[in-house]
């Protein structure tokens, strides 16, 4: 049975991420708790809104109600990346060559390593940003679709249109697909082939609630999602992704919603967190389940696997967080 090392924090914990072997927990109040030989606390923001791991470097990025964007290093030190007084920064993303994207209102910004900043303006508010896995390119989710921009050129945006509010965005690891989360209890996807007018649509519907968590399997064959009383896992191995295919439903619990999903970094094993704080590990090949944590005080708000895949850190909206040792 896996062992759980609990960590009780005050208030809502918005997320958790590992840097190396050290987990970092972020609270909505703006504090970062770094677990390294005892909890170390950094007052990062006056109200923290977003907390993400930079997939291109060994660092974390945060945005807050104070209009600041910070980069957090493995030693816990914070560097100011950008500042927009009197703005709320709820959209940040890390890119190649130490680039950082952030957004507020109808504008996306990309801060480059040489301190220059590129601005891209949309017709509607920007709700999410993702960098493509290759090349300096961003996708900005907005109302009625996504705008894709090449950061280093003045080329016009590639607009991917689909009616509705798009609140999150992710590229598949190979860059062949782009998927958004929608207010309308659905995912929407596009098959990208480099031609502006030929991106094919993928509709992924039937969710009883909004999808707020997505996770790609290590090789990008599967995309797991929350928003139902099971983890909904869509197949992306074929050339057309999930078009015409049914998803797998893993970890089904009657009327208890999945709030977070996270694939193991090396294996097709999925961690599933629920609104009652329970956590399951499920193997895709046969659906075998392992109870990783019994229900707690609050719903699971964040997951992070350690690099070696032996530990899983989790965050909760009631502050009852912890680290699960899978190898125990």
Automatic annotation (TrEMBL):
Source organism, top-level taxon: Bacteria
SUPFAM superfamilies reported in the protein's UniProt record: Quinoprotein alcohol dehydrogenase-like (SSF50998)
The protein's name in its UniProt record: WD40 repeat domain-containing protein
Lineage: Bacteria, Pseudomonadati, Pseudomonadota, Alphaproteobacteria, Hyphomicrobiales
């Amino acid at each position: 049975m896996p062992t759980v090392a609990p960590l009780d924090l005050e208030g809502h914990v918005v997320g958790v991420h590992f840097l190396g072997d050290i987990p970092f927990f972020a609270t909505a109040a703006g504090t970062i708790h770094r677990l390294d030989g005892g909890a170390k606390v950094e007052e990062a923001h006056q109200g923290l809104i977003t907390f993400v791991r930079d997939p291109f470097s060994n660092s974390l990025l945060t945005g807050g109600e104070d209009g600041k964007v910070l980069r957090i290093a493995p030693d816990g030190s914070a560097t100011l990346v950008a500042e927009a007084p009197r703005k709320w920064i709820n959209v940040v993303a890390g890119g190649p060559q130490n680039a950082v994207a952030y957004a507020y209102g109808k504008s996306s910004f990309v801060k480059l390593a040489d301190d220059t900043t590129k601005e891209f303006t949309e017709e509607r508010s920007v709700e999410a940003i993702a960098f493509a896995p290759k090349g300096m390119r961003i996708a900005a989710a907005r109302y009625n679709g996504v705008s894709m921009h090449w950061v280093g050129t003045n080329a016009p945006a590639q607009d991917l249109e689909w009616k509705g509010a798009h609140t999150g965005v992710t590229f598949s690891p190979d860059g062949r697909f782009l998927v958004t989360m929608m207010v309308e209890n659905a995912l929407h996807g596009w098959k990208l082939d480099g031609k502006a007018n030929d991106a094919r649509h993928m509709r992924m519907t039937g969710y009883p609630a909004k999808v707020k968590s997505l996770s790609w399997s290590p090789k990008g064959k599967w995309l797991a999602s929350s928003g139902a009383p099971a983890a909904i896992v869509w197949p992306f191995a074929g050339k057309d992704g999930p078009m015409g295919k049914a998803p797998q439903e893993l970890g089904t619990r009657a009327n208890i919603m999945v709030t977070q999903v996270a694939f193991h970094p090396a294996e097709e094993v999925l961690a599933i967190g629920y609104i009652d704080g329970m956590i399951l590990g499920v193997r895709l090949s046969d659906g075998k389940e392992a109870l990783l944590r019994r229900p707690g005080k609050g719903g699971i708000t964040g997951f992070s696997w350690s690099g070696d895949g032996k530990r899983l850190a989790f965050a909760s909206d009631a502050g009852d967080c912890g680290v699960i040792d899978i190898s125990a």
